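Sorry to interrupt, but I need a hand with the structure work. Go ahead and set the record down below:
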Amino acid sequence: MQQIVLKQYCDGPPKPSDFELVTLPLPEPKDGQFRVRHVWCSVDPGTRSRLSGGDSYAAALPLGKPVDGFSAGVIDASNNPDWPVGTNVFCAGGWKTHSLQSGKGFIGKVIDVPGVPLSAWIGVLGVPGLTAWFGMKDVARFKEGDTVLVTSAAGPVGATAGQLAKAWGASKVVGVAGSDAKCDWLVKEAGFDAAINYKSAADLTGAIAAEFPAGVDILFDNVGNAMVNRVLPLMAMNGRICISGQVADYNLTPEQTPGIVNTKPFITHRVNMQGLVVFDFARRFPEALSTMARMIADGSLKTQEEQFEGITAMPEAFCGLFRGENTGRRVVKVGED
């Protein structure tokens, strides 16, 4: 088997040289275990929080250890009767070609839905989609008629969150993204009511305010403190902020991370702000996954996927996330489908 390990701690934006390819003997499953041959592996911006040597919401990754990630593949050896050979699964397999699993933790059997590819189970039907579902439904406490602002809206989490809000009856959904092409896709394909290119907007705060004359009911933020600070004065009464991700802050030290100073709306407008770790909702994953799988199949949930070939492509695919190059979910094919 092959795997990508952390060679040196990342200082600022990650570089391909921070990682190293290692070849190991193929692992054999013990009693109760089974081996998954990965077909697809994901690169996730949240992984960056573990790569600087300091603890975040997850412990720092030690040097020489394989990098975290999610995988979709097939069981090719098993000593667990509940997980027979030939079963397609999604799991927390890491940046590897194979992993040993026990059936515990983040793992599930792929639901065979025509028109839904295997790679989707580590995309919209993986942590990104689940984060969007529970972030919008439970953390942001979405209700019909809400106005919703989604940042990093062309990414898999943001795009899914906005589309779910529209499907559930939002009165207006606006996305913030980093190119005209991304904004066009959000409006023309994903069904957002409007999209703002933050790179070309002369006055980003003014552009957001113009879209929400009565205020923002829900800010679904994937960017970080500077964006939250910008939108706080634009929140509606009893507005809710879901902190889903912090892609602009992951590469910063605590001293470099912007502060949130526009705190008065927490009092004057009774604004509530809450973050989430999606695994808190693990018992309810099946309901969300089956619903979103049907939405993908019937075309009511649009997805974008960038595919890379070979495990050696994983470091560059990951690093490109922090240069804003990605459009949708980035997945890497590490084995035959």
Residues 131 and 278 are 5 Å apart (CA to CA). The chain has two domains: 2-123+303-333, 127-278.
